[in-house]
Amino acid sequence: MSGPALLKKHSHAAIHEVAINEAVELLDLLAACLERKEPEKAWKVALVLVEHWETRTLRHVEAEEEGLYKKLVEDHPELKDEVTALIRDHQLMRKTVAKIKNMLREQHVSKEMFRAFAALVEIDLLHNEAEEALLME
Ligand SMILES: [Fe+2]
Ligand SMILES: [Fe+2]
């Protein structure tokens, strides 16, 4: 998930799509568990979701900051502001995941936790769109 694959719009977008689709599927499952009033199942899904965001997206964004973004700004200094905005999106995702992890201490899925998971999806979708726009075909 690093190096040249991230520089190409097509392969990078494919990485985004797989991760976001999985997150949306899990979020839908979480919503269904909450609707059916199955708190134990909801709890298990929430744990899988947190792990998903940490191991997929947060690792992906780390690799971008270490490699892709540096290369983008080096090659195209005019993109500096756009890249700074993308890093800010990453920070929002990290903060939201940290907030969810904190809420996990309550040992149940609260409405607030669900909203935070849903927010992550929306931030990520907008972020991916902006990021892909900076990449070459
Ligand atoms: Fe990113
Ligand atoms: Fe990305």
Tell me briefly what this model is.
The chain has one domain (4-134).
Mean pLDDT: 96
Class by alpha and beta content:
mainly alpha
Shape: elongated
Whole-angstrom Rg: 16 Å
- Order of helix and strand elements from N to C terminus: HHHHH
Number of helices: 5
Q: Give a short account of the largest sheet.
A: none
Number of domains: 1
User: Into which percentage range does the β-strand content fall?
Assistant: under 5%
Q: Estimate the helix proportion, in percent.
A: over 70%
Rounded to the nearest angstrom, the distance between the terminal CA atoms is: 17 Å
How many beta strands in the DSSP annotation?
0
Low-confidence stretches: none
Write out the distinct hetero groups bound to the structure: fe (ii) ion
Your description of this structure?
The protein has helices at residues 4-7, 9-35, 39-75, 80-103, 111-133. It is mainly alpha-helical and 137 residues long. The protein has one domain. One fe (ii) ion (FE2) binds next to helix 2 and helix 3. One fe (ii) ion binds next to helix 2 and helix 3.
Key descriptive features of the protein:
137 residues; mainly alpha; single chain; binds fe (ii) ion
Topology:
Elements: H1 4-7, H2 9-35, H3 39-75, H4 80-103, H5 111-133
Helix pairs in contact: 2-3, 2-5, 3-4, 4-5
Bound molecules: fe (ii) ion (2 copies).
One fe (ii) ion binds at residues 12, 16, 60, 64, 131.
